[in-house]
């Protein structure tokens, strides 16, 4: 008989951990964070908010953030049996109808919780099912004689007409009196639940399921347990009170652990727990299994690793047999559920294949979850499904990596460097950009400054933009933050008739739109002065007028007045204003000379245009 110990670590305020050891080896493990409220098993008053005929299910408001999902199969049997022909959910339920529900599957990700209107209350030896007056015996009790004996004991119980009971596996070897005490305890609880339900006006919690410690003693306590060690006095007292009421014969195994070391450390359990979170588990034969959880399924690969042997078939058999034992254990410890695919090492002999299948099935019998196990196919793959009992340990203790976004892989530094440089090069095409500040991780930033320094200088020269690379030790490898500072508007001009047409200019091909760069910040929101077609026509006309004036006036002292601004963004109206000032000056001087009757035409060279570099660009 194996030595079974239950270790309950409740000394930390934030969490409760429970480990079951068989001969010193971790057999089962559960953890519950105090701040992570569990809803599975809780009973609520709910209201029907929507009936989906295509799904044959209802969505119910039960006082939580997301609505619960209530399928037709989870309606009370007494409701369906009133008229066996009414099988459509829309005929059984109506919108705004109130109904008592129990959470049977926790909300996970974007999936709301699944609820059932078939209420069940679990005790140590019995499960009471109000509204479903059918008695039963656990399928795990396989002996025909034992099942007959339990049926006789159930028939002697004072069960109400509208209530059913199910005999649990833990009932092996108990007396009729134990059954009656458990039944009385559960019926008292249900009476209190119905009383609360009738007094409650709004959807919400009616009854809360027991905490992890009580659930473990109630559901997971093994008859051959030698010790239950609890390192917290208050938790020990609660467990003691529960055992006195439901299983008094086991009180001697319950003990309050007092020691300098954590109870898990005392029994070398911490290292075994750490292995649960690993991807690879090594086998005694030298092989290994690799477990990957995905959205669609759980993939388990069996590798021979360092296993050696003269016969390849025997080596494969030995590794697969060890893997079958460990896979059954890992499914239970990690609570892996849903579709599970196991890729065993290929074997040719049919007898060896059946031996591995039977090995897996035998060790899965220790699991409380419902399962369906297929056969190993010609590809060496076995497909099975497993019921989820609780959130998996990976879901409880892990979160997606912010660097790899949960993929488990990140780009190489070289790939990230080239990606970031392409973004910088594209952003430099913006004609309104005067300065770009780019923040990136320290590692990529230093790599950019060292290996791409000349390329960045070329971009600055070519596009007239200042590029400032700022390595930041607080950023991750994939982080890229770009801030663009626009050119300031050099001249304040009168409103253009085209201003309304260019409030949101469309970038030409090759220019970068802000949405193409992640985290782009534009420090200036001033738009470029308008240089539409009509302005360009006016500019051409003004230049023609200036050339005409040159031919009319040839005064040695006359000098054209340069425009006030030579910015490439000066509008057509600014140029016209400057030319008009030049013309007015020349006209005044011409009139003055006419009065003196000594008009002297200026030389053509004196009226030459300003140097090209000072001309305003149009």
Describe the protein's architecture and organization.
The protein is an alpha+beta fold and 618 residues long. The chain folds into 5 domains: 91 residues, Nucleotidyltransferase, domain 5; 65 residues, Ribosomal Protein S5, domain 2 (2-Layer Sandwich), CATH 3.30.230; 121 residues; 110 residues, Ribonuclease E, catalytic domain (Hypothetical Protein Ychn, Chain: A, 3-Layer(aba) Sandwich); 82 residues, no CATH class. The strands form 5 sheets. Strands 4, 5, 6, 7, 8 and 13 form a 6-stranded antiparallel β-sheet that branches. Strands 16-17-18-19-21-20 form a 6-stranded mixed β-sheet, with helices on one face. Strands 3-2-1-14-15 form a 5-stranded mixed β-sheet. Helix 5 packs parallel to helix 6 and helix 12 crosses helix 13. The longest helix is centred in the N-terminal third of the chain and has 24 residues.
Number of DSSP strands?
25
As a percent range, the share of strand residues is 15-25%
**Main pleated sheet:** 6 strands, antiparallel
Give the low-pLDDT segments.
490-531, 553-573, 597-618
Give average pLDDT, whole number.
Answer: 81
Quaternary structure type: single chain
Give the number of domains.
5
Number of helices: 16
The helicity comes to 25-40%
Rg calculated over all Cα atoms: 41 Å
- How far apart the termini lie comes to 96 Å
- Note the overall shape: extended
Explain the layout of strands and helices.
Blueprint: E1 4-9, E2 15-22, E3 25-33, E4 43-52, E5 57-61, E6 68-71, H1 77-81, H2 89-92, E7 98-105, E8 114-116, E9 121-122, E10 126-130, E11 136-137, H3 144-155, E12 163-167, H4 176-199, E13 204-207, H5 212-220, E14 225-230, H6 233-246, E15 254-256, H7 263-266, H8 270-276, E16 280-282, E17 288-293, E18 298-303, H9 312-334, E19 338-343, H10 350-364, E20 371-373, E21 381-386, H11 393-397, H12 413-427, E22 433-441, H13 442-451, H14 453-463, E23 466-472, E24 480-486, E25 520-522, H15 533-552, H16 572-595
Parallel strand pairs: 1-14, 11-12, 14-15, 18-19, 22-23, 24-25
Antiparallel strand pairs: 1-2, 2-3, 4-5, 4-7, 4-13, 5-6, 7-8, 9-10, 10-12, 16-17, 17-18, 19-21, 20-21, 22-24
Helix pairs in contact: 5-6, 9-10, 12-13, 15-16
């Amino acid at each position: 008989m194996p030595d079974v110990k239950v270790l309950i670590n409740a000394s930390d305020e934030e969490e409760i951990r429970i480990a079951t050891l068989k001969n010193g080896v971790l057999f089962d493990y559960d953890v519950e964070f105090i701040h992570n409220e569990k809803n599975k098993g809780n009973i609520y008053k709910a209201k029907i908010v929507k009936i989906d005929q295509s799904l044959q299910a209802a969505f119910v408001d039960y006082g939580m953030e997301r609505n619960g999902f209530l399928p037709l199969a989870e309606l009370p049997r007494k409701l369906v049996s009133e008229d066996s022909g009414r099988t459509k959910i829309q005929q059984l339920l109506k919108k705004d109808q109130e109904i008592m529900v129990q959470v049977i599957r926790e909300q996970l990700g974007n999936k709301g919780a699944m609820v059932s209107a078939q209420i069940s209350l679990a005790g140590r030896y019995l499960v009471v099912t109000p509204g479903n007056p059918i008695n039963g015996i656990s399928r795990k009790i396989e002996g025909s004689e034992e099942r007959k004996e339990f049926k006789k004991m159930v028939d002697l119980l004072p069960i109400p007409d509208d209530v059913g009971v199910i005999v649990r596996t833990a009932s092996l070897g108990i007396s009729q009196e134990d059954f009656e005490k458990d039944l009385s305890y559960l019926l008292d609880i249900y009476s209190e639940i119905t009383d609360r339900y009738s007094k409650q006006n709004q959807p919400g919690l009616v009854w809360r399921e027991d905490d992890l410690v009580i659930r473990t003693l109630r559901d997971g306590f093994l008859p051959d347990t030698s010790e239950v060690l609890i390192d917290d006095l208050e938790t020990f007292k609660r467990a003691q009170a529960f055992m006195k009421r439901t299983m008094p014969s086991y009180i001697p195994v319950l003990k309050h652990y007092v020691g300098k070391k954590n109870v898990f450390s005392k029994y070398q359990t911490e290292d075994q727990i750490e292995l649960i979170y690993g991807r690879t588990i090594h086998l005694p034969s030298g092989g290994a299994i690799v477990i990957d959880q995905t959205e669609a399924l759980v993939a388990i690969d069996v590798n021979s690793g360092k296993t050696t042997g003269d016969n390849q078939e025997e080596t494969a058999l030995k590794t697969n047999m060890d893997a079958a034992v460990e896979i059954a254990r890992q499914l239970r410890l990690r609570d892996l559920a849903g579709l599970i695919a196991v890729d065993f090492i290929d074997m040719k002999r049919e007898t060896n294949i059946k031996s591995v299948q039977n090995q897996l099935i035998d060790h899965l019998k220790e699991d409380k979850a419902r399962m369906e196990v297929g056969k190993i196919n010609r590809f060496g793959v076995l497909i099975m499904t497993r019921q989820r009992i609780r959130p998996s340990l990976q879901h409880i203790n892990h979160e997606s990596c912010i660097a790899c976004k949960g993929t488990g892989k990140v780009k190489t530094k070289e790939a990230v460097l080239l990606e970031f440089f392409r973004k910088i090069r594209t952003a430099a095409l913006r004609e309104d950009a005067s300065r770009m500040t780019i923040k990136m991780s320290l590692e990529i930033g230093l790599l950019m400054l060292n290996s791409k320094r000349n390329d960045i200088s070329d971009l600055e020269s070519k596009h007239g933009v200042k590029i400032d690379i700022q390595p930041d030790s607080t950023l991750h490898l994939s982080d890229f933050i770009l801030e663009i500072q626009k050119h300031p508007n050099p001249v304040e001009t009168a409103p253009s008739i085209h201003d309304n047409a260019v409030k949101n200019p469309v970038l030409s091909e090759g220019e970068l739109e802000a949405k193409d760069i992640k985290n782009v910040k534009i420090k200036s929101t001033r738009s470029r002065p308008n240089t539409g077609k009509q302005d360009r026509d006016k500019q051409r006309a003004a230049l023609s007028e200036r050339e005409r004036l040159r031919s009319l006036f040839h005064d040695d002292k006359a000098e054209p007045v340069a425009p006030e601004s030579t910015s490439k963004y000066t509008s057509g109206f600014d140029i016209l204003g400057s030319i008009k000032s030049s013309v007015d000056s020349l006209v005044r001087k011409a009139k003055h000379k006419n009065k003196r009757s000594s008009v002297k035409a200026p030389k053509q060279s004196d009226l030459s245009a300003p140097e090209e570099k000072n001309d305003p660009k149009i």
